[in-house]
Amino acid sequence: MIAQARAGECIQALSAILDRNALLTGADIPARNTADTSFLPPVRPLAVARPDTPQGVADVLRICAAHDVPVVPQGGLTGLAGGAHPIEGAVALSLERLQGIEEIDAAAATMTVRAGTPLEVIQKAADEAGFFIPLDLGARGSCAIGGNLGTNAGGNRVIRYGMAREMVLGIEVALADGTLMTSLNKMIKNNAGFDLKQLFIGSEGTLGVITRTVLRLHPQPGCTMAALCGVDDYGSVVKLLNGARRGLGPLLSAFEVMWPDYWHAATVRVPGIRRPVEGDHAFYVLVEAQGLDEQVDGGRFQSWLESQFEAGLIADAAISQSKADTLAFWRTRDAAGEFQTVLGAHCAFDIGLPVDAMDDFAKACRSRLEVEVPGCLSVYYGHIGDGNLHIVALVEGAATQPAADINRIVYETVRAFGGTVSAEHGIGTVKKPYLPYSRSAEELALMATIKKALDPKNILNPGKVIDLDVEAAS
Q1: Keyword set for this entry (predicted)?
Q2: Quick one: pLDDT at residue 473?
Q3: Within 10 A of 102 (CB to CB), how many other CB atoms are there?
Q4: Domain range spanning residue 256?
Q5: Residue 176: CB partners within 8 Å, gap ≥ 6?
């Protein structure tokens, strides 16, 4: 009864600072705020708060902290690990109204944006201003930049530009007690004390809620070159990657690898996907390079490809002659977004491994799944150039997927190969039981110490990523 009374008092206090459209309760809570894309069952939160200013976000946290009511931050709700999934009895803090590009500083090559702004809006604004935002995800049209930073998103071009944290110069964060910490730095060089922004990037809203950020802009590419290659063995894939790093240098922007099982699912099962390369190959590699001058950089790319053919590393290849060709190449890689429709319910994994171990891992993981989960299909693909492998696994036609067994097998194999259970999608609740597979007891204890320091009442996204109780965490 005391908890219910405090929850009621909290809602009453929130209603005093938020207008009617900014505080939703009961049947007025939209279905979209009851789940993210992690396949967890929907949960109706206590309320949905939708402030439209950074101070409004801080005020919501201050009130919830005063009434001991937990808060779950929500952005575009495209996460796959349950980080934004609501909790019963908690306030869902939606940033969907906290949108807008506040400034593009051409001299500093920076953009200041609000955390609820969709990534695609930011990309287009940069393009119109003659700049380039390298972060790119399949969910670009609906994912929000705050969530991208909260999970330290990766995407397709990490091999050249790094993870999301590499594009952040400044940040503003609402802390658990309602303090608004503004540090909207625009300088690349700023060593004045701790780099506090790094505490919050990748913490999935468990340490603070990002409200604004200063993003670093890059020069707009003048040309993009791509080739989709058929390769005969994994050793040649690794040699091709090393050759691309040496021969293309900073031009290399993506190196995507698809195993044959993925290639078949993408080009046979998904409608409308054209095979740029015919015939059967052991691996299919998409190499992309971005330059400034088509004549100079395009020629360099062509020469590099010819050298790889001469070295026997490429068996066959299709080379882009237009933007349409490049997009067609990428559609084979982005076809994974259609697997839910063509393959049905499945388990999806985002893991990191040493590059030279990836094929051995795939063989071992596939073998265990086939033996221990009869009828299990698993397909492998990913951003191999930055050590990130994706897996889709399922028993086709099963009324219910044996997710517990599939998860156990995949993550046990990851642990055996010295990998990480999360490369770019975060931990949330889905991967939380497996975090000790990739982090030592000492690391987990330090994470809990930081959580206790910044959120002693465990208000922010409780139960996600790390527990305050070190024993429970380890």
Answers
A1: FAD, Flavoprotein, Oxidoreductase, Plasmid
A2: 38
A3: 12
A4: 223-337
A5: 61, 65, 207, 208, 454, 455, 456, 457, 459, 460
SS3 168: strand
Looking at the 3D structure of the chain, how many domains does it have?
A: 5
Hey, what amino acid is at 264?
A: H
* Host H or E run for residue 380: strand 376-383
Pairing of strands 23-25, 47-49: antiparallel
pTM: 0.92
Among 64-68, 167-171, 245-249, 381-385, whose mean pLDDT is lowest? 381-385
Distances from the Cα of 29 to the Cαs of 71, 417, 459, in angstroms?
A: 15, 44, 21
CB 461 within 8 A of CB 452: no
Q: Cβ distance 48 to 24 under 8 Å?
A: yes
pLDDT band at 139 (very low <50, low <70, confident <90, very high): confident
Structural domain ending residue among the three candidates 164, 189, 219: 219
Residue 137: the pLDDT is 86
Same domain, 263 and 275: yes
111 shares its domain with 213: yes
Pick the last residue of a domain from 77, 94, 111.
94
Cβ partners under 8 Å of residue 295, min gap 6? none
Q: Which of 28, 154, 163, 24 minimizes the C-alpha distance to 80?
A: 154
- The mean pLDDT value for 457-474 works out to 78
* Integer Cα distance of 199 and 189 in angstroms: 18
CA proximity to 30, closest of 41, 38, 42: 42
The tokens describing 157, both together, are 């071009």
Q: 105 and 88 in one domain?
A: no
- Amino acid letter for position 385: G
Spell out the residues 6+ positions from residue 465 whose beta carbon is closer than 8 angstroms to its own.
83, 203, 204, 206, 426, 427, 428, 432, 435, 447
162 and 53: one domain? no
State whether 238 and 255 are in the same domain: yes
Nearest to 186 by CA among 114, 115, 110, 101: 110
User: Residue 19 half-sphere exposure, CB side, CA atoms within 13 Å?
Assistant: 4
CA dihedral over 410, 391, 154, 254, signed as positive or negative: positive
SS3 of residue 411 by DSSP: helix
Task: Mark whether 209 and 227 lie in a shared domain.
Answer: no
Count of positions (residues) in the chain: 474
In this structure, the answer to whether residues 322 and 231 fall within a common structural domain is yes
Whole-number Å distance between alpha carbons of 137 and 356 = 25
